[in-house]
Amino acid sequence: MVDDIAPDSVLRRTEIALRDVSVSYQSGKEGRKTVLSRLNLKVAAGEFVVILGETGCGKSTLLRLILGQEFPTEGAIEVDGKPVTQIDARCGYVPQKYSLFPDRTVLGNVMYGPENAKSRFVGRFRPSFFAFRRTLRAEAEEFLMGMGLRAQDMHKYPHQLSGGMQQRVAIAQALLMHPPVLLLDEAFSALDPSTRSSLQEQLRAVWLESKPTVVFVTHNTSEALLLGTRLILLGRHGEDRMGETNLVLDMEIPQSQLPLSARIRAREFQDLLEYVKQLAYKSSSLHADDPVADRIVEEGNLA
Fold it and tell me: Whole-angstrom Cα distance, residue 17 to residue 66?
């Protein structure tokens, strides 16, 4: 059952629309397995939507549907009012594992997408392309510095960077294409807590400045509530609930001017965190008498 706290985005342009979307797969002798069921969502331009839920509830599948990497069994998906029929250049994508070219420097990785797109139209040997490349280089350096890299990092190769630095480059790589939609699939989950906190602050700052539409998948409840303007909680679909949606909660997240490090300690935040964790727990396949499950919920991670 969907909680009736739903965001009012009527006055803003719809960037992403999912209409009665379901995804199911053939699952051996068991028949078909449903991952997403009867999902109806509208995401307004400039929203920062976080998708939370346990493993197997369809979070990453939802991102791949928006990207055009997969297609629904039923229903329709639109980005910017146009049906998604293939991998969509309107969407930037940052996976959990760094997606960098090992034979290109940091600058080369970040500039590759815009350079490649431009050269298809004007060619690489025209004066206009060289002017474009100079402007692009300056912009790429600005993006990278904004993501916490230093001038001496620009000419390093991926293997010379830490995991956190590689993920910073991957985010800058996606942002430099100026996509109206940015999709992040557990982009911080493999990072240590300090690096993760730093990247959360930087991503939030980038979003506040340029306001792309962000859809961010995470297992971490605190991270979801700190970063987003809207929370979508998915539950794992049970085959005994045929025809029901696995959308559990769709709510606006109260915003604050406090830094993330201070906001997480506020009483209001802790109360909201506890509410969402308990709701997520009740909608999950975890059992109340499972001590491992209790620890997972206490830490705010949905396994």
Answer: 9
